[in-house]
């Protein structure tokens, strides 16, 4: 192992085996790169589970300018317009590139793109593959391409435990595999380990996605932004399975409606109805459930008898639960689906730590703002991977030696954190619930237990939510329900989060008294 690892020294390292990591590695060819994946490729990647597709202006009646307008509207004032414009303009070419890599996108009989409609889009612009299996098909093609690419050294079953930093510069990665810990010297690291759904009880993300990339970056000294903005998908399948199967928004785009257990269509009077932005629909479903009702997606009329053909994945898990969507309403509820916040990056994916880039959900590019427009995430990962790869390749490649490493932290286990965040940082939030979460998470994040990194990420999210005294997009405060006239992105470092948590805990103790975890 030592000889093998030493031979990989000073190559760029990509951490994460989802679409963002795989595409970045492919875009860097023929430069030799190392790709670390904690699990076998695709096994714990949110990309694999994506049903919706990629948003891109591919039709004659569409234009990137319209796509940009929809993106900015959904982002509730927090998108960075310049980067959003650049990304949506590059989206059609990214779809064509994936098709050349072998992704079998859905086509019409005459050969044109079969484009779907999702919430808050003004045009049909969602490119699908195998109906509701877009993520699986994209990952199949990318994994095959990576395994064929001679310049990519793939290390599966290897987990990055910490980034080694000196003078705000990356010097190496401390990783662990079945044989134990080891260090790889490198001055260039791309974090592509996104997703935080594993920090919550109800999520559509793989349970292994609990903010590992954010924890690595925060402990390395990187700045993080907009952590309070978490998208709850309004139509996760309401059953016992965790992670929760997703009933894609495309079903509502095909005409399905939301009803409660007495048959009331409770979104009918809302602007956009079932195709309103996700945060609005999620809150409506949440409130209806809080009133004691169950909630359902009714696809009996639209798409009706065509449901199984159009959505084979959803149809299969519904059938396992004894439900036929052509004749039965589908039970649904909100669940954590996507994180708009992440590592603060520039237009090339560079973080505030020299030699550290981020791509995909782990990054905060400015595209999504406070509320991601449906199907913009896979597209962002594919588009930005090229820019990140170009930036990494254009950076000084001086050999470097990592400093001596101490023993690695234990493997992370977020199970103790899930009920805390689910209670305090759910669809609806308020000050005392957030403060209680901060008080419980603070000592755990400061320790070295298996819950330390998950608690650290949860703590930073909670502090960011506590600081934002308004409601905007995926962040809703019942004690501050109004949206402020002007919007500013939030940013926070690990040191700032810990200091704020300490102060908040002291204020709570003095004003309300000790609350036992």
UniProtKB/TrEMBL annotation:
GO terms for biological process: 'de novo' NAD+ biosynthetic process from L-aspartate. One of its GO terms (cellular component) is cytoplasm. Residues 457-482 form the Fumarate reductase/succinate dehydrogenase flavoprotein-like C-terminal domain. GO terms for molecular function: L-aspartate oxidase activity. Coiled coil: none annotated. It comes from the Bacteria. Pfam families: FAD_binding_2, Succ_DH_flav_C. Residues 394-416 are annotated as: Disordered. Residues 14-378 form the FAD-dependent oxidoreductase 2 FAD-binding domain. Pathway: Cofactor biosynthesis; NAD(+) biosynthesis; iminoaspartate from L-aspartate (oxidase route): step 1/1. Its cofactor is FAD. Its EC number is 1.4.3.16. It is an enzyme of class 1 (oxidoreductase). Its main location: cytoplasm. It is found in: Cytoplasm. It catalyses: L-aspartate + O2 = iminosuccinate + H2O2. Keywords: FAD, Flavoprotein, Oxidoreductase, Pyridine nucleotide biosynthesis. Belongs to the FAD-dependent oxidoreductase 2 family. NadB subfamily. Catalyzes the oxidation of L-aspartate to iminoaspartate. This is L-aspartate oxidase. It comes from Bradyrhizobium archetypum.
């Amino acid at each position: 192992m030592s000889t093998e690892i030493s031979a990989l020294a000073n190559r760029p390292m990509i951490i994460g085996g989802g679409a963002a990591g795989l595409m970045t590695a492919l875009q860097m060819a023929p430069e030799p790169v190392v790709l670390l994946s904690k699990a076998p490729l695709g096994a714990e990647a949110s990309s694999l589970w994506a049903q919706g597709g990629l948003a891109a202006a591919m039709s004659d009646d569409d234009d990137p300018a319209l796509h940009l307008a929809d993106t900015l509207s959904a982002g509730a004032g927090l998108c960075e317009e310049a980067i959003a414009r650049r990304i949506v303009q590059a989206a059609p070419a990214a779809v064509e590139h994936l098709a050349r890599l072998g992704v079998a996108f859905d086509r019409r009989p005459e050969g044109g793109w079969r484009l779907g409609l999702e919430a808050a889009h003004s045009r049909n612009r969602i490119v699908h593959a195998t109906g509701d299996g877009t993520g699986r098909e994209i990952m199949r093609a990318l994994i095959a391409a990576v395994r064929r690419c001679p310049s990519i050294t793939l290390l599966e079953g290897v987990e990055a435990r910490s980034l080694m930093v000196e003078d705000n510069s990356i010097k190496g990665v401390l990783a662990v595999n079945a044989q134990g810990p080891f260090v790889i010297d490198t001055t260039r690291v791309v974090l592509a380990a996104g997703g935080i759904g594993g920090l919550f009880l109800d999520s559509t993300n793989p349970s292994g996605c609990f903010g590992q990339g954010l924890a690595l970056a925060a402990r390395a000294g990187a700045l993080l932004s907009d952590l309070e903005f978490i998208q709850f998908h309004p139509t996760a399948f309401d059953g016992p399975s965790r992670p929760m199967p997703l009933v894609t928004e495309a079903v509502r785009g095909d005409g399905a409606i939301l009803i409660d257990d007495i048959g009331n269509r409770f979104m009918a009077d809302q602007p956009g109805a079932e195709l309103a932005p996700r945060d609005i629909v999620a809150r409506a479903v949440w409130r209806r459930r809080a009133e004691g009702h169950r909630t359902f997606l009714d696809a009996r009329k639209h798409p009706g008898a065509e449901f199984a053909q159009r959505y084979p994945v959803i149809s299969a898990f519904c059938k396992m639960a004894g439900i036929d969507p052509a004749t039965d309403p589908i039970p649904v509820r909100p669940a954590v689906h996507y994180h708009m916040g992440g590592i603060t990056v520039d237009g090339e994916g560079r973080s505030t730590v020299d030699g550290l880039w981020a791509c995909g959900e782990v990054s905060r590019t400015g595209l999504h703002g406070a509320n991601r427009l449906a199907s913009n995430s896979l597209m962002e990962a594919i588009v930005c991977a090229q820019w990140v790869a170009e930036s990494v390749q254009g950076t000084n490649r001086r050999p470097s030696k990592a400093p001596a490493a101490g023993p690695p932290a234990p493997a992370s286990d977020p199970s103790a954190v899930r009920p805390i965040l689910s209670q305090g940082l759910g669809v609806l939030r308020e000050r005392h619930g957030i403060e209680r979460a901060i008080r419980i998470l603070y000592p755990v994040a400061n320790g070295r237990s298996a819950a330390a990194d998950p608690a650290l990420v949860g703590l930073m999210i909670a502090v960011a939510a506590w600081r934002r005294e308004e409601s905007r997009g995926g962040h809703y405060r019942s004690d501050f329900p109004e949206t402020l006239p002007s919007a500013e992105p939030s940013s926070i470092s690990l040191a700032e989060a810990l200091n704020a948590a300490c102060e908040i805990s002291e204020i709570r103790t003095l004003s309300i008294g000790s609350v036992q975890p």
